[in-house]
Amino acid sequence: MTTALKGPPNQTPDNSGGGIGGAIYRVLTAIPTGALWGIVVIWSIPTLGLAVNSFRSRDNQRNSGWWNTLSDEGGTNLDNYREVLTSDSTNSLIDSLANSFAISIPATIIPIAVACFAAYAFAWIDFRGRQWLFIATVSLLAVPLQVALIPLLQLYSGGAHLTIPLLDKTVTLIPDFGLVGTSAAVWLTHTGFGLPFAIFLLHNYISGLPKDVFESARIDGADHFTIFWRLVFPLSIPVIAAFAIFQFLWTWNDFLIANTMTGANAEAQPTTIAIANLAGDYGRNEHLLSAGAFVQAFFPLVVFFSLQRFFVRGLLAGSVKG
Amino acid sequence: MIERLRGMEARQSSAILGGLGGLALFLVLEVAEVLRTLGVRYLWVPVGIAIGAALGWALAGIANPMLRRQVGAGAGGVVGLIVGAMVFRAYRPEFDATGLLAGVVVGTLLFGTVGAMRGRSAVHSAILGAAFGWVMGAFGLADINPLANQLWAIVAAAVPGALLGLWVAWRPMTDLLEVDGDPSLIVADDADELLAASAVSGGQTPRLWVFAAPAVAMLAAALLIMALGSAEADNVIDKIVTTLINVFIAVSASAGLWVGANLLFKQASVNWQRFLAVAFGVSGFLLFFVLDGNRILRVLGPRQAVADGIDSLVNIWPPLTMAIVLGLFGLLVGKAFAVYQGTPALMVPVAAGFAVLGLTIGLTRTDEVAGEFFTRILWWPIIGGLLSAAFGWILGAESDANRRRLIGLAGGIGLGALIGSSTFRAFRPQFEIVPLIVYTAIGAIIFSIPSIMRGRGLPKTAILGAALGWLVGAFGVPAFDPRASQLWAIVATIVPAALIGLWIGWRPLADLPGRTKVDERARSWIFLAPALSFILITLVIPAIRTMLLSVKDARSEAYVGLGNYGQIFGNELNEESFDFEGFSNVLTSRLTFIGVPLLLLGAIVGVLLGRRNGYGYQVSGVSATPVGLGIVALAFAIFTTARGTIINNLWWVFTVTLTSACLGLAIAVLADRGRFERVAKAIIFMPMAISFVGASIIWRAVYTARDISKPQTGVLNALWVGLGRLSTGSGLPTLIISVLLVALLLAIAAFVVNNIRQGKSEGVAPALTVGALLGWFTYRFIGSGVGGFEFRSTGEQVPNTIFFVQESPFNSFWLMVILIWIQTGFAMVILSAAIKAVPTEFLEAARVDGATESQIFWRITLPQIFPTLGVVVTTTIVVVMKVFDIVKVITNGQFETQVLANQMFSEAFSFRDRGVGSALAIVLFLSVLPVMFYNIRQMQKAQA
To answer: How many CB atoms lie within 10 A of CB A306?
Structure first.
């Protein structure tokens, strides 16, 4: 697909000639548009297929492809969704949905506040080592979070202790709060991991605000807190929205951190783990997978489609300027 | 919010305030399970909001003070009646005249006096006091008895309700929204102007409904799910309410701390003495908190018997204390609002809100915040904080140098004596003279070096150094011994404390510029500290620790040097990292035979075209396409013969990065300015919103394989088998398709020949590519068949399906397709924006000069968007390098699909080998390091 012909698809060839030659020419110049629609179809078929399957009974799903739906015995029904959404069924996703919210809501709100402060400081407060510290912070963007998982798990399960070198005495820095297997452990981790990106994104925006506004505010006697609270925060709402969407999608869809931090505690597991477990016991619950996957994807898709504009804006601010 | 409140009609705002009040009251009642349920838990909360809002709305419309009071008292009384009537049997109080009387009298007097002292109406405050006193007397002090008279419960609730209503209505109509002149409002006007300007210029500021709509939709969906589920949704609602309360606590506590810090350092330039007192107080609090938390100090507070007695009072102490603590805290936040927002009237409601919150926490978390928390953990810090605050207060007012030193010395000795004499027996150090002298001397010397080197002679910091050295020498080095002399413990504490006090007192009283400087410098750290500490604790320190763990053994007990890395690179793990066993097959691989000629073809065409146009080598569709395809084919030849975890990772990075970038670019170009551009893009972008787990499930269904004799349920196998049947069949459909294929091939050939004869290169390259692929397909279709079979080693053709997930080595590729499906949207969006940003003058100039669209793309657009392409590639590389979920869910690394991240997970968390797990994480980290450096360099360029 690297053919990359560029131009309005309805551009008429200058010497197509009449008859069959012209027809061929028209067919072939339509290839780019055709290719685009081909890709769109290929891109949507997997999701479409699963969507159709989620309304089919277990036997139908097992014995024929989703394209046979119209000839299904017994037609379509909502049984799969009903089972997945009934709180007393063994395959219920209700609890895990609540857990997902319990993780994503704090993991979205808290980094916003914290990152706003830091982004403002990096952009508009003068202090020594500002440039250096900012680059150090933002370069953490690329660090794979696997690098922090094992010690973090130890921190949540036993607190932090420092053995002072040479003296051989241990001091407790952070006591054991018993966080392992709770959603708090998950959102705390998300908060930390999300901050470099949040700071980067917000800094890009906040540092671009007009300078004279800040100067006149300083002359009026406003301190940094006032400027931040009265000026920067309200002005940054668009980029905050963009980051919030990102972070919500990321935390809702995360599997690795949740899997590590909630461990075997089924009561704290979010939807991603729940549907992965459904997929795990192959065969038995396979007919519920399609419905489960859609229930899991429902909330991010709502956010995505309704706020796509802000999402794209954030994506661009986060990558092109860098 | 406040902004909005102020801008709104008085009626609306007071309705909102009333609603908030109702929310707070009924939330507490529901959480404490005081009320009978209305079928569903927490249904009382919306009812409460409605009542409160209605009351607020009604009151705001009544100007006559007498009428206001009557309405307020009446409505409050009715609400009280309802609450009283609905009180759960287990909470009915017995009638206790003494307690009631005592509560009301004390409450009235206390509030009335305080109100009068603050210059408010004494009667107004007394009403509130009477209400509180009544509640305490009637419910708090009385015995709870299920058999008690219900009538009394109703009366007991109705009276304070009426009193509260009266209190609310007592204020004149606009009091709540009073705004006085404040310098910050000048800024506010600027902000409003700016906001308005930005809204006009490009609709930058989103309207509220943009966020409200999805929120409402999600809420509706959540409710629908609950309704679909069953009546047992209580559990879930509970969980969500708890989460929201937690979030609220976390956010408001940290926001309060942060605002408090800002306020504190503002005091540095406003009122130095106050600043010093608070700063010292906070430091003292923290110092004693750490000492007490490590159980170094003796237990203070009531002995066990007393604590038991407190426990028997059940729920009163924790909620009450929490309410007081948080109420004070809320006062601080309210003060901040008053200072920064110019809304002094909101101070009391904010404080009250926090108090209610404290009450809620106390009621719900009785177990966690039991009496011990206050008696054991908080007493020492409070004492230490108050003493230190007094020290700071005195020091902040004294300017005479000698007296300052004296005060410092005395304060240090006092605090030191307190700590030393209360040191827990187990922490008494033995007396050892040698280390004491040595370390004290070393400390003093080290701290004076910087100053001496600058030629300023013996500095004051030597005192601080000596103090720290003393601490190490007296407490750090010798062993602790419960039988050691207590006198020595006291002396050992007093000396360094006195030294530190002296050091503090030695500094002169800060002058005005110095104070402003403290304020300025502190602000940057206040703004940065929350983020930096989060990053340090969750990212930086763990990363350093992982490095340490990676050179230790599985249980982090002994150092093994680079042994873990040796295991990884020496192929000693469950899955090999590098497996070159079948690598010699690369020479006989079919992919090699396709790749090499393509590469040569591209090179020759490029050179020929280049010579004709005067370049060395011309990059265009005709030359780049074969080269690209050739490289891919060769890379695949290598990656399918050399196997192993790390090789797999490289394969992933190569394939996904290249494919998603190229596809994204192609789609961005194809869709640019076309009809339905937005629809097409949205569909291709959509997978970004789906989780990797969800995507894996979606694609696993596509890859499903069943026995060849049964109908296929996976799309790909159905196509493969279906086409195969069609091509090997002999019916009319097979014939028709064969004829069509041949006709299409001929048409393409005619097109190419026609174009070349007319000397146009436009469209020849893609037509040739399509023609080649179609030709191969036709050859197979007419010949041996297109699919639904495999060749055995004997050369026999056996019908079979493709096991996409199980058949190595290409199963890895099928997993990569999933990530490509997700990542292409990302590449497309970013590249599309970059393409639209290419200046149109360039394109028009080129068109005027007669450049073809293809030439414009290769010579203008592509070079222009090259930096963006770099961003896309680096971002994708980082994502792909860490790929985990897809492999974990679909194969869990079986069938030779293992990748680093999944191997790290299973080594660290399934096999519990922390050493190897950490080493794998570090390998992963090192592999993205080049990307990190690239990013940093780009950023430095952008900053410069």
So the answer is: 18
Those residues with Cβ within 8 angstroms of residue B737's Cβ, 6 or more apart along the chain or in another chain = B726, B781
Q: Are the C-beta atoms of A230 and B191 separated by less than 8 Å?
A: yes
Report the candidate in B641, B634, B647, B651 with the shortest Cα–Cα distance to residue B585: B641
Q: What is the average per-residue pLDDT within B72-83?
A: 83
Rounded to the nearest 10°, the torsion over CA B80, B81, B82, B87 is 90
Would you call B535 and A192 a contact, using CB atoms and an 8 Å cutoff? yes
Mutate to test the interface with A, among B1, B6, B187 (most CBs of A within 10 A): B187
What is the helix (H) or strand (E) element at residue A172, kind and residue range?
strand A169-174
The pTM of the full predicted model, rounded to 2 decimals, is 0.74
DSSP per-residue letters across A59-93: HHHHHS-GGGGGG-TT---SHHHHHHH-TTSTT--
The residue-averaged pLDDT of A246-254 equals 91
Cα angle A259, A261, A264 (rounded to 5 degrees) comes to 65
With the C-alpha atoms ordered B641, B647, B653, B656, is the resulting torsion angle positive or negative?
positive
pLDDT at B385 over 80: yes
Residues B915, B917, B923, B925, CA torsion sign: negative
**Torsional sign, CA B524, B529, B535, B536:** positive
Asked whether the beta carbons of residue A65 and residue B531 sit closer than 8 angstroms, the reply is no
Q: How many CB atoms lie within 10 A of CB B64?
A: 10
**Residue of chain A nearest B529, judged by CA positions:** A118
Residue-wise pLDDT tens digits, B477-490: 777 777 877 788 88
- Closest-CA distance, B287 to chain A, in angstroms, reads 13
Backbone torsions φ then ψ of B507, nearest 5 degrees: -75, 140
The pair phi, psi for residue B180, each rounded to 5°, is -110, 170
Measured between CA atoms, how close is B224 to chain A, in angstroms?
10
Residue with tokens 């007093």: B494
Q: Is A285 on the interface with B (CB under 8 A)?
A: no
Name the burial class of residue B557, with classes exposed (0-12), middle (13-18) and buried (19+) by CB atoms within 10 angstroms of its CB. Answer: exposed
Give the pLDDT band (50/70/90) at residue B6. Answer: very low
Residue A28 to residue A5: CA distance in whole angstroms: 11
The amino acid occupying position B813 is F
Chain B residues inside the 8 Å CB shell of A295: 225
Residue of B nearest to A233 (CA): B191
Which parts of B862-913 fold into alpha helices (H)?
A: 862-864, 866-881, 885-890, 900-905
Compare CB distances from A213 to B194, B258, B909 and report the shortest one's residue: B194
- Take residue A234 and report the two structure tokens written for it: 């309200």
> What pLDDT digit, counting tens, does each position of A133-172 carry?
998 888 888 888 889 999 988 888 877 777 766 666 676 7
Beta strands in B585-685 (DSSP E): none
Q: Which of residues 85-104 of A touch B (CB under 8 A)?
A: 85-88, 92, 94-95, 97-99, 101-102
Half-sphere exposure of B290 (CA within 13 A, CB side): 9
Q: How far is CA B31 from CA B156, B243, B580, B620, B731, in A?
A: 20, 13, 64, 70, 74
Is A2 within 8 Å of chain B by CB? yes
Residues in Cβ contact with A53 at an 8 Å cutoff, skipping those fewer than 6 apart: A61, A66, A290, B701
Helical spans, DSSP H, in B65-120:
65-86, 97-117
CB-CB: which of A25, A63, A115 is closest to B751?
A25
Contacts of A8 in chain B (CB under 8 A): 673-674
Q: Strand, helix or coil at B231?
A: helix
Contact B683 A95 (CB under 8 A): no
- The residues facing B144 across adjacent strands are B93
Chain B residues close to A173, C-beta within 8 Å: none
